[in-house]
Amino acid sequence: MPILKSVFYTLSKNKSLNIFAQKHSDKLGVNAFVAGTNIKELDANTTLLNNKNITVTIDNLGEFVHSEKEADEAKNNILFILDYIHENQLKAHISVKLTQLGLDIDDTLCKRNITEILNKAKEYHIFINIDMEDYSHVQSSWNIIDDLKGKFDHFGTVLQACLYRTQEDVTKNADLRLRIVKGAYKENSNLSYQKKKEIDDNYLLLAKRHLLNGQFTSIATHDHKLINELQNFIVEHNIPNSKFEFQFLYGFRTDLQDKLINEGYSVCVYMPYGADWYGYFMRRLAERPKNIMLVLKQNMNKKATL
Fold first, then answer.
1. Which among 80, 196, 301, 302 would be 20 to 30 A from 148, CA to CA?
2. What is the per-residue pLDDT across 245-277, written as a single tens digit (0 to 9) for each?
């Protein structure tokens, strides 16, 4: 299984396969994980969840950004989605990757683009979440986030429980809204925990610490054991529902989402959207190769209805 995961991580970085895959999305079961490749599909899926009292965070998918033109196009796509959320009163906010906005090209370009996004989001009272990426981008992302903290208060970021450094990061950023995740990138043992129990234990430590900080916490996991323990912790420490949410990836654990909603908890779904879905899709398979069976099952069901 570790070998299979490594294969998927390696494939996720292949630009040529990205181009090929976009032409064959209907054959790969992508709609099991991606909420739409156009705004009409995104609107329909967002409205469906909103009607169930579930909010969404929209990730306008985009990787392999290597030019200022591509970074500006990504920024403009996000600005368009912000306008759309505002005009259609969707219960949604935005998740954005700094590499998509030019982090690998020029810090000044990246800061200019994220600042423009934050300014428009502030005008519309929409929250922006800055996603955290692989370890090679973590510190450069924090450098920009630290600069933004003095200028904006309607954004947050992500902590990855797999990384050793994250305990220090949660302490330094107790004043930010944070999404706690296990981590979707393959890192070596010098940087990251490798065993599931170690990652789970660190996840609980980080989530509990930030819940006690009093800032908003997005508990982003599909692991019902972790969710149950954190539910008990929340009750024990009288943490109000307004200070946290349970967050799921689009297409996963809809049964658990419904259960939590019925119990009175806030639920948010991470909605990947756009034609550039390949890297995201491959990382989902790498995280949990059993997701291959979900893809195959969906395709079988689709063919059965034709």
1. 80
2. 999 999 888 999 999 999 999 999 999 988 776
Catalytic residue among 169, 177, 179, 253: 179
* Helix axis angle, 107-124 to 68-88, nearest 10°: 10
Count other C-beta atoms under 10 Å from residue 134's C-beta: 17
What's the one-letter identity of residue 230? Answer: L
Q: Which of 92, 203, 103 is nearest to 145 (CA)?
A: 103
Q: Which residues contact 248 (CB under 8 A, 6 or more apart)?
A: 220, 222, 256, 257, 267, 268, 269, 270
List pLDDT tens digits, range 36-69: 889 999 999 999 999 999 999 999 987 778 899 9
> Could you give the residue ranges of the DSSP H alpha helices within the chain?
2-12, 15-22, 39-50, 68-88, 107-124, 135-149, 166-172, 196-213, 224-236, 254-262, 278-287, 291-305
DSSP per residue, 104-134: TT-HHHHHHHHHHHHHHHHHHT--EEEE---
pLDDT at 12: 45
| Confidence at residue 262, expressed as pLDDT on a 0 to 100 scale | 97
* Contact present, 247 and 57 (Cβ < 8 Å): yes
- What Rg value do the Cα atoms of the chain yield, rounded? 19
Does the annotation count 134 as an active-site position? Answer: no
Annotation marks residue 179 as catalytic: yes
278 to 20, 221, 274: CA distances (angstroms)? 9, 22, 10
Residue 249 identity (one-letter amino acid): L
SS3 label, residue 16: helix
Question: Which residues of the chain register pLDDT less than 70?
Answer: 1-30, 277-279, 282-306
